[in-house]
Structure formats: structure tokens, C-alpha cells
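Help! Submission page says 'invalid entity' but I think these are all valid:
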Amino acid sequence: MVRCMKLGPVVRASGRALSTAAGRQQRRALAAETADQDQVTRKNFADVQRERKEQAKNSVLISCPSKINEKKFLKHLSRHGEVANHFFFDSHGVHALVEFVNTESIISLLSATKVPDNEDTCVLPFKSRFIKVKSQELDLHHVKCTPQTSVSINQLLKKLSGAKNIVDQAHIILDELQLTEESIRVRYLVSSLVSDIATAYFPEATVHLYGSSVNSFGKMGCDLDLFLNLDSLKDVSGKPASSFVTEYWMRQVSSGRVAQQKVLSVIGECIESFGPGCTEVHKILSARCPLVRFYHQSAGLHCDLTADNEIALRTSELLYIFGNIDSRVRPLVFTLRCWARVHGITSSVSGHWITNFSLTTMILFFLQKRNSPVIPTLDQLKNLAGKNDKRIIEDNDCTFVSDLSKIKPLENTEPLDTLLIEFMEFYGTFDFSKNCIDIRKGVEKNKPDSSPLYIQNPFEQSLNISKNVNKCQLERFVHLVQEGSWTLQKQASQPLEKGKEHWGLASILFPTDSDGLFRSKKRLDANRLGSILDSLKVSNNNRKTTTQKQTKH
Amino acid sequence: MVRCMKLGPVVRASGRALSTAAGRQQRRALAAETADQDQVTRKNFADVQRERKEQAKNSVLISCPSKINEKKFLKHLSRHGEVANHFFFDSHGVHALVEFVNTESIISLLSATKVPDNEDTCVLPFKSRFIKVKSQELDLHHVKCTPQTSVSINQLLKKLSGAKNIVDQAHIILDELQLTEESIRVRYLVSSLVSDIATAYFPEATVHLYGSSVNSFGKMGCDLDLFLNLDSLKDVSGKPASSFVTEYWMRQVSSGRVAQQKVLSVIGECIESFGPGCTEVHKILSARCPLVRFYHQSAGLHCDLTADNEIALRTSELLYIFGNIDSRVRPLVFTLRCWARVHGITSSVSGHWITNFSLTTMILFFLQKRNSPVIPTLDQLKNLAGKNDKRIIEDNDCTFVSDLSKIKPLENTEPLDTLLIEFMEFYGTFDFSKNCIDIRKGVEKNKPDSSPLYIQNPFEQSLNISKNVNKCQLERFVHLVQEGSWTLQKQASQPLEKGKEHWGLASILFPTDSDGLFRSKKRLDANRLGSILDSLKVSNNNRKTTTQKQTKH
């Protein structure tokens, strides 16, 4: 199976995506060798989005028999034009994502595609780029599927124990948990299919991915956050060429919120009634940010579609830039998120826990606060902004440079393990009672209110993104960073014992007495830990709520 | 104001549609002169539908200021291409229906049309061919609007009193109550706008008008019945060119009914949320024939949209053929429907009353039963059918000739007044206790069950279209035809008294003692009658229910 993919957010030195188990191993070896150089991209966020969207437009999702003959399948597809890429994955049955070189191939393929005419059942005749292939000519063996979830925790722990050092371990965590090339492609395709539904009524509307799918910090299995931008519609202008002006007759509503609710209601109804592969559709229109939630069964993705979420998209781009400014940022964030999840600092359900976004912002703030900073402040990024980068959204200044090449690398060269320990030291002694965290200025400020944890929203500056966190959760966090710092320092000072089961990062991935969650046992066996860490992969059961939604970027 | 219209179902000798009051008068004079020759068309049903749909596709609905300068308005529009037709009408504000010669003009006009950008309100940005025109350059006078409802009953009675004879009176009734050219155009445009909504998701779907809007028996203000045909979608075929077959991934449902419900639900949601000019949207999906009911305020039309109603469309064509075989059919049907409505034989609400469709079928049956028949039987029309006329719908043979020129005129030359009296004689002595009415064979048959009135459905032959009628209503009908026959014969035998207020047909358009509805007064004053007859025009308040729906063709 030949894959030759144009890479997006996660570009690797090899220039190839390798998603099989063997590929993973090779990639990791590569990552360790070239650590701190290869794990970032220099592509601008908008370019990545554009390329990925183009790829997705030229792609189809195909439900296949599990023993399909791959060679003949490709030959059949090539009747309609050159196939640029393809891979198989399993989600409630085997599926192929096939990208053609030209859009005409899609038109050709669909024109040769039939409406099912099973005598016994009726179909809802909604045509999309999600099709089924049937064939009598099957192979003996199942087709090889790329994984759509992370490796099991046992495998992860095994890999950690075989690593060279803590830095290597952090890269393993990143490599095993981050979105694969294939997962990214599936996400953009689902977005493109939703876009087809939306643009049927609103041809100028655009559907954007935001949040973890695109901010460079997404884990395998994370939710797909989409938003529908209808604002581009309003750009239609034209000087009146005569004393007559024509305007579309459009339904007027009392507020933008009502407009969003109505549009989402119709789109939700479509997805519910005939959205191919979509189940569990819920219209949550009375939420603060109205949304349609559904599960794309065939892609294995939980999706949230909102309307008008420009600031969230801008925040995603900001995180993307921070994630790609320096190669240490992403392994550091993935490692700390993994650690936080194990200890119940973050959670997939809403509540008083620290969110992933808050935790990431704390890490970024820490990196800005080094004596020699690892990353610039948001204000510095704003100062680098060109004319086209200017963006005011709902009176909030969301301006910052989008051209990554304009951001010069900073001088800090501290190794990853040092940064990890220093992060824990930093927040172990941080004066949360007085200070507020602000990545715009990169300096502590006096808290504007008495929230236990105050992290200023980088764009909506009067908002605290961690308003939900209570005193108890903050105290647990402080206690855990103090303990983590102590454990890691001890690990770092000890010589590496080959064969020792859990050393280095693995030692802080074990819940301790102080976690509250697990008071009864000093140590948990691997199975127990496994079940906890498994929840890192897909948060299918306890899905985040709308409140949390607001803070996902 | 120049109008030059291509005429559809109602083609008049002049080749022009004249819808103003003056026009009506001219047209009626014309009708009287050329009676029995000019009131029928020789265009086939399918051709009329096709032409009308094309017209509608090239048309836009424009909301205008009431004092718009017509000349400048047209000049403005002509920037986008040649205007083929236009007229103004008033329905919750002044509107223009403008037909362009070419579709490109519509595209050009819409590309110059803005999305409203009122700061104070939000709009649902759904673009359609319903637009608004704004202008500072207004005239002193209101623009001239074509009527969208019939004349008042007082005017009708006045016109009847001024007629030459009963035949002339019947033509006046036809002329005053039938759909005008403009009303037909508005109906096709609304259908076309609904089609735009439906084809956004189902590009091969077609929306058809059926029932009174197209069967040649429609009254001004009657409901607009539409159905969405999704079946054409299933025709996509193709021989498998390889051992692989591709099929669209489509949601499967347990029955065609569920599929209809889901499709109508989505379209209903769209119409409700942003259907321009649509109000009072109700999804009546649990009805036997699921439908979406709405009021197109700007067209002044109550609309019912169902899915898959092929037989109803076929029935509409059959009625259209009967209405256009002989010029006496339509004035006879309009006169008798008017009479029946006055006496409460038919009603706009569902119940035990005889429906318009049943009454029309009874009239057709009577015309087939004349010694020398006025119209052929359905079986005779079937025998004239060509290859392309063959139509089996849900196992029902719906075959009949569609080419009107193949139907040779029959020899009966009885005048309209004779037919009117003979109709009443016929049903005054008809043995309803034994016999069933069947326009397929054109002969009485034994009733298959004990329903008081049994009229066999011409296509679904096991069904009785007048199953709803109870004994009491049938007895009232028989009593009223007997009385009507007696009154009319008396009128026919008397010399015409010039200046006498209510003579001829007017004499049977007065409710009598026997009507039950009006026992207390021997005679009603004109105002009272007016209010009753007004209900003939638009049945806005007591709208027909779904049960009745089934029998509207």
C-alpha cells in the first residue's frame, strides 16, 4: 500500500506519514534522533487549513467489505481519475478515505454511483460523498487498517520503559497521543461533508474546524469542533447603479443568536434525518453557544457544530503558532496533559477541574516567563503582525502575526526535562492568591477578582478562562506539581536502570495518595492504570458539556 | 402598462390575458360571443406544465413600494435582460411578478442584489428569487394591481342580472371565479420557489402542482397543492462496468412513509425557519398523507406540500382533459359548484359534505350518460392512449391519452342551460340506493357496499371517493337538485324580464327553506347572501383538513 501524502500541521523530517505500528516505531526513532528540530511545521495556519480543505474536497469516504482486494479497488477507482492518496480504517466497519488529484474524478465517480434499490427497505435519497463499494471479488485476508485511536496504555508504558531518557519519553508520549495524518484527513473530510449540507442553503457559508483538531495539541480521538461561518454572506456589496436598490427578502429575527438557532436547527434536522453516517444528533439550541452535537459513526468522531465562533478559530491559530514556534512546546504540553489527566487535574466532564485550554495556557505562560523565554508573548506576536493580520472580532483585538517565518527563534535552549521540572517548580510556588496569568503580556498581574485561579482570556481580556476552577481543585494542582517536581528531580538524578519497569515520566504517571481519587492503594496495578489512561483516548462516555465548550480552542 | 402573456390552461381567443375590471368585461363579452368555442385549450397537460414551469424559473417575486414608478422600475430591471412579462398585485403589500426572457437575467439580477444590512435586526441569510426593491423615486399614485380574488358577490349578482340568458350567466360565473392568468403565474412561481428549497438537498427532485390549480376547475383563491417527487432519483442506473459497484450511503428507513415524513420534516423546517414570505407553517407528518402546510403571505396562497402524489397528479390531468374536451364542461362545473356551495352541499371544512371532486365526478358521469354523450368515458380515453401514455402507479392502471388532438369532438350539441336542468333531473331520479357512479365505464354499476353515495375512484378502483358522505347529506343533495330543476325549468320557460333583479341562475343561487342552514328566513338580503358567497372566494378560515385533502384533484 503506497501512501504519499502532503503533510499538514504535523510535518515530519521524513516528509511521509507513517501510521502503521511499524511506521510509529520508525517515526519515534526519527523523533528521538532529530528531537527539537523536526516536530514543528513552518506552514502558516491559514495555508494548512486551505490545503487540508482542498484535500478534503477531492476526497470521498467509502464503506468497504473488510476483505476488499485493495489493488482491484484502486484500479476501479482510477477509472475516474488519478488517486492521490488512500487509506483504510475501521470505525463500525471498514472504510476507505480516498483522495483524488482532481475534483472532476469525484463528479465522475458519483455519476456512476447508484441509489440503493433494495426492495425491502426505503432510503432517504440524500446524495453525498459518502458511498459504499460492493464487490464479489474478496481477498482471504482483511485489509490493513490504520489506527484511529492511540495505542493501549500497556504498550505506552512499555515504550516509555524502553526509552533512552526523559526527553525521549516525552517524545514518545507526543508521538503516541497526537493526531495522525489519517485522523486529520478524516476530520477535514467530515467537516467537508457537513459543509456540503450547510452550503446547500447558504452557498457562501464556510465550515471551519477549530479547537484540538487544528491547534496542534489534539489527541487521537478528541472531539471534532466545527463552526459554520455565515458572516461571509454579508460581504456581498455593490454600489447602487441606479436609484433602485434590490435586496433579498430575508426573514428578520430579533438577534444574531436567534438567527444562529434557526440555521443550526435546520442543519441539525438535515443531519438527523439523512446525514450519512451520523447518529446521536442533538440540537442544543438553548445553550449559551447554540450547537448541534452528533456522532459521525463511520468516522468515529464526536462532533459539535456551532455557528459563528471566530474568536475560537483565532485562539486555535494562536495555539497552533505557539505549538510550532519551538519543538519543545508540543511534547511538553502532551506530557503535562497526560500527567494532569491521570491525576484527575483535568477531566472530560465539566466541573471545577482545570480545562485542557487552561492548563495549556499555564504552560505557555511558564514558557514566556523563563529568564530566557522559550516563546514570545501575544503582544510580541501582535507587534510582528502585518497589515493582513489585523483582526478585530466583536470589539476584541485578535491581531497577531500569522507568518511563522517572521517569528525568530528565541535563545533559550533548556532541555525538555528541565522545562518539565521547572514547570512544576514554577506553579508549586506561584502566588495564585494575588496573581493572574496573562499570556498577552507574559507577566503576572494582580487578579481582578477573587477567583481561586485567574487566567486571562488572551482575546476577551475581561474574561477568566478558569473561572470554573474552585479552591479545592487549585490546591490539588499545587500539591501535585510540588510532588511531581520532587519525584522527577529524584528520577533525573538517578542513573537509568535498564529493565526497570517504571522510571522517568512513568513515575509521575502513577496516581499517588494525594490524588484523592485513589486513596486506598499506594500503587495501582497496570490494568487499573490502563483503564484510567484509556480514558485519555476517547472521551466517548463523559462528554464535555457546553460550558466547557466555550473554553476549548 | 403593457402585458403580453403566453397563455396556458385558459387560452382566450384574443390571445391576451386581461385581468383588470375592464379586461374582465371585455373578456366576458368575448366569451358570450364565442361561447362554446373559445373557452378550451388544445394544449396537452404536460406541455402546459412544462411551459409554466419554465416561465416560473425565469421569474422573480419582487416586493415593491406601492407608489413605485413602473416605467423606471422596468428600466432598472431591463439592465439585467429583456423582461418578458410583469404585473403587480397586492398581498400584504404590493408585489411584482417579473418574468425575464432568459435565465441569465435572473442570475444577473440576483448578483446585484444585496443582503439586507440593517444594523438593528438580524436576518436569516437564505437567498431566493423573492427580493425587495427600494427606491426614492416614487409616483404620486399607487401602482395598478391585478386582482388576486374574485369580484364581490354583489358585483357577481349584478353581472348575472345583466346577462342575455342562462348560458351567458354560466359563462359569467366561470369567468369571474376561474383562476386568472396572473394567479396561475403566481402559483407556478411559488411552486418554483419551494422547488428551489427541495432541490438544494435533492437535486433531482421535482415539485409538481396538482389539484385545482391545474385541473382547469380551480377557483380564485383556492389552495395551492404541491407534491414533491423524489422518485425520479431512483432512476439513476448504469450497468456495472466492473466487479465493483458503488452505491450512495443513504439512511435506510422502514417504509416509504417514514422516508416521506423525514424529507418533509426537513423541508418544513426550512420553510418555517427561512422560507421567504412563508408563515403559519405546520408539519402534519402523522396524517395519512404526511404534509407541510403553510401560508405564502406574499402570494396570498395557502399551500399544502406532500410527498409522492403521482395518482393525484394523474387525476388532475384527467380532469384537465375533461375540462378541455368540450367548452360546456367548465361553465357547467363552475355553475354547479357555485350552486352547491351556496346551499351547503359542499363545504370548505371536512365532514359529511360532498367534496368538490365528488361533485365534479358526478357532473362528468352525467355528461357521459347523455343519450348522445358530451364527453367520452375514461376507458375510451384509455383506448386512445399511445405508447408513452401508459402509466401504472402503485399497481393502478392510470393510462389514458394525453394528446388532446386525438380526442374527436362528440356529436352532442345540447345547450348549457339544458344540460344544467338535465343534470338536476338526472340526479333527482338517480337510484343511489343501488347504483354506483363510475366515470371509467360511464355506466351505473351495483354498489359494492352500503355507503349512501358511492363514486368509484377512477384509478384506485376499489375506493369510494365519497365515502365520507352520510345519508342525510345525500338526501339534502337529492332534494336540492329536484328543487333546482323545478326552479330552473320555470325560469327557462319564462320570458326574460329586463331589469328583474334575480332571474335565471341567480334564482337557484338563493338558499331555500329546505337548505336547513337558513330555515328562519324565506329570503336573505343581499348582504347576508354576500357573506355566504364571499366564502366561495378564499377559504382562509375554515381550511380543509387532511381527510379532505385525499380527494382533491
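Support: the input was valid. A stray whitespace character was the problem, and the output above is from the cleaned input. Chain A touches chain B through 72 residues (CB under 8 Å).
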